[in-house]
Amino acid sequence: MRLLTLNCHAWQEENQEEKIEILARTIVDNDYDVIALQEVSQKNASDARVDEHYGYVLLDKLKALGRAEDEMVWTFSHYSYDTQAEGLAILTRLPIVRTSEFFITASHDPAVWKTRSIVRATVLYGKQEIDLYSCHLGWWNDLEEPYKEQVDRLMEKVDSQRLSILLGDFNNDAGITGEGYTYLVEKGLFDTYTLAENKDSGVTISGKIAGWSENERQLRIDFIFANQPVRVAYSRVIFNGENQPVVSDHFGVEVELATE
Q1: CA quadruple 39, 40, 43, 44: dihedral positive or negative?
Q2: What is the CATH classification number for the domain harbouring 124?
Q3: How many domains are there within the chain?
Q4: Which of 63, 107, 108, 251 has the maximum number of C-beta atoms within 10 A of its C-beta?
């Protein structure tokens, strides 16, 4: 199973249409089964036009490239950049068995930018049902919406009896011990980067970006976790200027799992 996660920073990128084209072509060329996206926005929250929703624009480009089997599950989290309706999405060509969405923050108010929701899709891979989660969490030092509470609410929804894969922007640096990344692993999640037989640096942001305005370092904050040990053939950073052009303020992560 091939998976991709990317915080796409929708409609905030220069040359946005060109970057969506690059993303679509890469999805087709790399033959992903699952694509998890964060910051998947509709340009104008009051306008339901399909051509203003990043996810539907991407689906149309995939169809134009001959990949028409994908379905999208999207959930709305909060308003951002004054007018946008920001959410999360899962695109997959696998059969979708069921879907759900839920909040991981105390706030459920879309006018509060710290409000966070999660979208989940259960898919059929061969004869196995697998739960997929597209995730976008807050920050470790947030006193209004504590990170541990966000993770606790997320993990309460994870079925320990079924393989679950959690993909996304977790907003915590894997290089810092004792903070958010440590807490995620302590809750029983397995980092596919750690498990990978082949891997690169893992760096997914470099320098200052939205939400990390003081950052001067290269960080690994975007992950693909599993709730069970899995064999991972490779984990690679993508859309970083070396493995495909940059398309967002985050780089993406692609992995290949060996699932039964």
Answers
A1: negative
A2: 3.60.10.10
A3: 1
A4: 251
Task: State the Cα–Cα distance between residues 110 and 95, nearest whole angstrom.
Answer: 30
pLDDT in tens, 193-217: 999 999 999 999 988 777 777 776 8
Give residue 235's pLDDT. Answer: 98
How far is C-alpha 212 from the geometric centre of its chain's CA atoms? 17
DSSP β-ladder status, 71-80 and 84-92: antiparallel
Task: Look at the alpha carbons of 43, 169, 156, 230 in this order and tell me if their dihedral is positive or negative.
Answer: positive
Distance of CA 110 to the CA centre of its chain: 19
State how far the alpha carbon of 140 is from the alpha carbons of 22, 247, 257, in Å.
Answer: 33, 26, 29
CA distance 110 to 78: 4
pTM of the model: 0.96
**H runs (alpha helix) in the chain:** 16-30, 54-64, 147-156, 180-186, 192-195
Q: Which two tokens stand for residue 54?
A: 């990043």
The parent domain of residue 199 ranges over: 2-258
